[in-house]
Amino acid sequence: xxxAEPEIQAYNAALVKVLRSTDPRQLxxxxxxxxxxxxxxxxxxxxxxxxDMVERRLWxxxxxxxxLAELHERAADWLASHPSEPNPSV
Length: 90
Known about the structure:
Blueprint: H1 5-21, H2 24-38, H3 41-48, H4 51-64, H5 72-81
Helix pairs in contact: 1-2, 2-3, 2-4, 4-5
């Protein structure tokens, strides 16, 4: 077992727990904690993102994980009822 493997397992277990909660506030806290611990810029940005963005990311992450199949219908419903804003042209 590599030195990083227990940390990866802990990260994945914590992420699944947060996603199962379906609580955007818990995802924000997870992102802040793990973003700092891992030095992960994406997680740090998620921790500081708008409430709407954090909630959208929560449901996208749930929908993308095969191990959360029991929540996929709920995620699909949420995503369908909250269409994303088109990106403005630059």
